[in-house]
Amino acid sequence: MTEVGEAGVWRFRRFIPPLDVRFRISLGEGGTFLHRAERLGRLLGFNELYLKNESTNPSGSFADRGMAVEVSYALSNGYVKLACFSRGNLGVSAAAYAAKTGLECHVYIPPQIERGKLYQLIAYEARIAFKENITRDYVKELINGGYHFITPTSPYFLSGLKTLAYEVMEGFRKDGLDAVVIPVGDGGNISMFWEAVKEFRELGFLNRGDEPRLIAVQSEGCMPVVQAFRRGVNVVKWRKKINTFFQDIASPNPSMGEYALKAIRESKGTAIAVSDEKIIDAAKQLAKTEGILAEPAAASTIAAVKKLKENNMLGHGDRVVCIITGSGLKEPVITHPTAKFQHTIATSSRIFDRIGKTKSLILKILYENPMHGYGIMKLLRERYGVVISMPSIYQHLTELTEAGLVEVKPAVTWRKRKKIIYELTIAGRKTAQQISKP
After folding, report:
1. Closest Cα partner for 7 from 65, 85, 92?
2. What order do you get walking across the sheet with 371-372 strand by strand?
3. N or C, which terminus of the chain has less Cβ within 10 Å?
4. What is the pLDDT of residues 292-344, one digit of tens each?
5. Residues whose CB falls within 8 Å of the CB of residue 246, separated by 6 or more in sequence, listed in order
6. Which domains, from first to last, does the chain contain?
7. Residue 39 in contact with residue 290, Cβ under 8 Å?
8. For residues 197, 198, 203 and 204, what is the CA-based torsion angle, rounded to 10 degrees?
């Protein structure tokens, strides 16, 4: 079923919509390692537990599979500018492939984006704008302005995601597979996995009834797919407050939620929610037993199989694959050496991820010159009409300092008083540059 002489995603080009070979690009995505997790399997009570390690893709996540195809499509249609809204890996991947091809890339991200992903965007020199959401009208403006706007439902992107399933199913053509556990945000990955399984069956490589059960995993703090599955409904929407730290699986209104439900139900699978605390524990356990540093959202699959085993929904003899969707270097929260979970989450949410309007303006001010707190407060008021107290100024500066964007310089004497001076770090200057771009 594969093509001779091709590697990774493009090995499956016959299942991808036709694209002129002149525009086909690759950073080496796909062909990721599928290995038996013997140590972790013994701890969790499985004889055959396998890990599909998508963290080794070029930008560190499964999204690279889809982005290689999507950006190739954009190139073949003459686009020179890309744009997307992303809570994490989609935007990082778009920026990486834009850098490879020389395309301009605008990425709209929520202020809560993980620090590692923000740094990746800065390194790829994407044009960053902070937005909690993006409206349809705004998307239309971008499209009318000549941008190719990428979404999790873009058909070429989705066709690239299917190659993950082709690789997994190839590995189990002989022995069969009982279950595949997949983190779910917008729902595209699990939906395309099921589409690929059905194609595999139609090609005669799999008998009807031998398909693996698909298991969707979400955080308890935002679990619209799990909620809809439990209730037996098709409306997939989280109407409560989002209460999870992990943005990639925190999509309250997933664009492919109904397709994800269909995949779960048709495969006779299930949907399960796990707590943020269990997700962190699973990420640590995965690192110390199998040598894979996964971002917490990716390690949610490990927390899920543990819970499913405890509830007798998976057994010792089941052959199970966990999809590890992204690298732990994108979210360094689990590397804190001593902190307990609650302290880590509180610290991370306060320090790493809050670059909103006021902090953006402070970064702009410090990009021009190092400055003391009172001077920053004065410029915020005079230039931007932002009136806040000195304690609030120092709180913002403390958080930016702890995030590695600002550093404290030796105090200087100003009008016979000692003043603490704040200056941007290298990371801070790069962030300010991106924020300042139109």
Report:
1. 65
2. 371-372, 417-424, 406-414
3. C
4. 999 999 999 999 999 999 999 999 999 999 999 999 987 765 554 333 333 33
5. 219, 276, 279, 295, 296, 297, 300, 331
6. 357-436 (1.10.10.10)
7. yes
8. 80
AA letter at 396: H
Coil vs helix vs strand at 295:
coil
Beta carbons of 25 and 75 less than 8 angstroms apart: yes
DSSP 417: E
Whether this prediction's pTM lies above 0.85 is answered by no
CB 222 within 8 A of CB 230: no
The answer to whether the beta carbons of residues 171 and 200 sit under 8 Å apart is: no
How far is residue 347's CA from residue 54's CA, in Å, rounded to a whole number? Answer: 28
CB atoms within 10 A of CB 115: 20
**Structure-block tokens of residue 378:** 């004065």
Residues comprising the chain, all counted: 438
Q: What is the DSSP letter of 294?
A: B
pLDDT tens-digit readout, 375-419: 999 999 999 999 998 888 888 888 888 777 888 876 655 555 667
Alpha carbon distance 293, 187 (integer Å): 23
Chain centroid to CA 432: how far? 23
What is the token pair recorded at 191?
A: 């939906």
